[in-house]
Design goal:
The complex is a heterodimer. Chain A is mainly beta. Chain A is built from no helices and eleven strands. In chain B, the strands form two sheets. In chain B, strands 2, 4, 5, 6, 9, 10 and 11 form a seven-stranded mixed beta sheet that branches. The chains are: A mainly beta, B mainly beta.
């Protein structure tokens, strides 16, 4: 299955703390993407990391990829209440066309 | 850039009605669009891949005659839920990929979703 599995399912932290969520997968990949979904809305692309990259940064986001362990992590530093959302990792399906999403991590950041 | 507009955002209708949802890429050409379905607090389930000018490719378990997909232009795909029943109530999200370049290294751009409630 191309579906990634996020861990933890839910995460509650205080503003200013860091949030780390993980994604494990089973197949070989060319890249892995992270998306964010605010409640009742569509998804927003956060970051794409290629299989030959180990780490990538975008603002307060840091994504790592360990292809030997088939896992990726998303770190949000200095979290804000506005970071409250669900976060999904996404992999390409077998045909290489569509993205397949894991079940997501629901992050709650309280002020 | 890369805006996907989905309409309507919310629809309530009676059982037996057919409902059409539109997905438009506003500032890019989308040769491929995708339709997902999401139940509360669940992940997105890919329903079908819509290719401009050809038939959609449906995922296993998705009824083609129930969920009609049309991708008549490079900027518009429609999903019609035919003879909708309460079990079809869900959050439907479309997504589009910019037609330029290979699929692998590109993000997909998502609409804001349509919440469908069938009474």
């Amino acid at each position: 299955s191309q579906q990634g599995e996020e861990d933890p399912q839910a995460l509650s932290i205080q503003e200013g703390e860091n949030a780390t969520m993980n994604c494990s997968y089973k197949t070989s990949i060319n890249n892995l993407q992270w998306y964010r979904q605010n409640s009742g809305r569509g998804l927003v692309h956060l970051i794409l990391i290629r299989s030959n990259e180990r780490e990538k940064h975008s603002g307060r986001l840091r994504v790592t990829l360990d292809t030997s362990k088939k896992s990726s992590s998303l770190l949000i530093t200095a979290s804000r209440a506005a970071d409250t959302a669900s976060y999904f990792c996404a992999l390409r399906n077998q045909a290489g066309t569509a993205l397949i999403f894991g079940k997501g991590t629901t992050l709650s950041v309280s002020s | 850039g890369a805006v996907v507009s989905q309409h309507p955002s919310w629809v309530i209708c009676k059982s037996g009605t057919s409902v059409k949802i539109e997905c438009r890429s506003l500032d890019f050409q989308a040769t491929t669009m995708f339709w997902y379905r999401q139940f509360p607090k669940q992940s997105l389930m890919l329903m079908a891949t819509s290719n401009e000018g050809s038939k959609a490719t449906y995922e296993q378990g998705v009824e083609k005659d129930k969920f009609l997909i049309n991708h008549a232009s490079l900027t518009l795909s429609t999903l019609t839920v035919t003879s909708a029943h309460p079990e079809d109530s869900s959050f439907y999200i479309c997504s589009a990929r910019d037609g330029q370049g290979p699929a692998g290294g590109q993000p997909q751009h998502f609409g804001d979703g349509t919440r469908l409630s069938i009474l």
